[in-house]
Amino acid sequence: MMAHILEQPGFYLMLTLLCFGVGQWVFERSGRHTLANPVTIAAIGVIATLLVLEVPYEQYFEGAQILHFLLGPATVALAVPLYRQMHHLKRLWLPIVLAILASVSISFTGAIQLSRWLGMDGELGNALGLKSVTVPVAMGISEHIDTTVSLTIVFVVITGNLGSIIGSSVLGRFGVRDPRVMGLALGATSHGQGTARAFDLHPESGAFAGLAMALTAVFASLLMPLIYSLMH
Amino acid sequence: MDRVFGMAGLLGLWLLGEGISAHFGLPVPGSVIGLMLLFVILCLKGGIPTGVASASDSLLKYLAMLFVPAGVGIMVYGEVLLDVWLPTSVAVVLATLLTLGISATVMAVSIRLSRSREL
């Protein structure tokens, strides 16, 4: 009977929802601690289950891909929060656009260069270059440069965690007091997770972080494949 | 009911974006073209239709969950990553600090410059 259940795609959808539910529960119970990231907890839970059941990733993905496929419309939906932040964009459009342009181009080339100095594999370095782009968009870009979707997601999620944990204290130490600057940097570095953290700090920081995340997504998909082809 | 139409609209814009991206051979993912199309539509309309707002808000509320299936794919790369965990960790930390520093510096400096020009 178990073998039959494991053949059903629905089993892997259930497993994903279950593990994410547990991850979300742990996250809430820990007082929304940034280390208790629900995506990380869910992925570890799913991987452990698949290893125990000896199910290959391809079979799992066949069942869980319905969720993966919703990333397309979810990315389109990012236009709604972006539109809601329009009034900020109108007032400070030049500083915001300059900051995002610099952050997208310098952090992409910088990350790839850094990975070369450290002797990392090209595939790993390219995935690292996409680390600050929100997951659905980073995945789309990863198909145009030499790397894999899964590696990209790992770096994006790690950077989301790391930036939201250390971001505000690092910037504070360097004398950043302006909530708009703080928010923009958190969103530009740590996308959705940075935005959530910025909303905890100050509502204005949250608004700027959401804006930074959406603009980073747009500029990254325009610039990164271009910069990549110039570098090769 | 509105939300169902809103969801259909998001899917339609995404597919239109995919079509445009493929037809012109663009490096931009179809979903981002869909995002830009929706943004332009909202600006032209001057508001967010209730169906689109509620479909978007409910999708974005569960955005994190949608990353899980692809994230699990790391199991295929487990050994590769364990071999190079030290340089990889150093690179992630440095690259994160770089992005934080660049975005904050350019934003702070250009706010100051645009303010001094207004005075």
From TrEMBL, chain A:
PANTHER family, per database record: PLASTIDAL GLYCOLATE_GLYCERATE TRANSLOCATOR 1, CHLOROPLASTIC, PUTATIVE SEROTONIN TRANSPORTER
InterPro entries: CidB/LrgB
Record membrane topology: Multi-pass membrane protein
Presence of keyword Ribonucleoprotein: no
Transmembrane regions: 12-27, 34-53, 65-83, 92-114, 149-172, 207-228
Locations listed in the record: Membrane
Main location: membrane
Pfam families cross-referenced by the UniProt entry: LrgB (PF04172)
Keyword Transmembrane helix (UniProt): yes
Protein name: LrgB family protein
UniProt entry keywords in alphabetical sequence: Membrane, Transmembrane, Transmembrane helix
UniProtKB/TrEMBL annotation, chain B:
Pfam families for this protein: LrgA (PF03788)
Principal cellular location given in the protein's record: membrane
Membrane topology: Multi-pass membrane protein
Keyword annotations from UniProtKB, A to Z: Cell membrane, Membrane, Transmembrane, Transmembrane helix
Compartments, record wording: Cell membrane
InterPro entries xrefs: LrgA/CidA (IPR005538)
Residue intervals passing through the bilayer: 31-48, 60-78, 84-109
Entry keyword Lipoprotein: no
Protein name as annotated: CidA/LrgA family protein
Lineage: Bacteria, Pseudomonadati, Pseudomonadota, Gammaproteobacteria, Alteromonadales
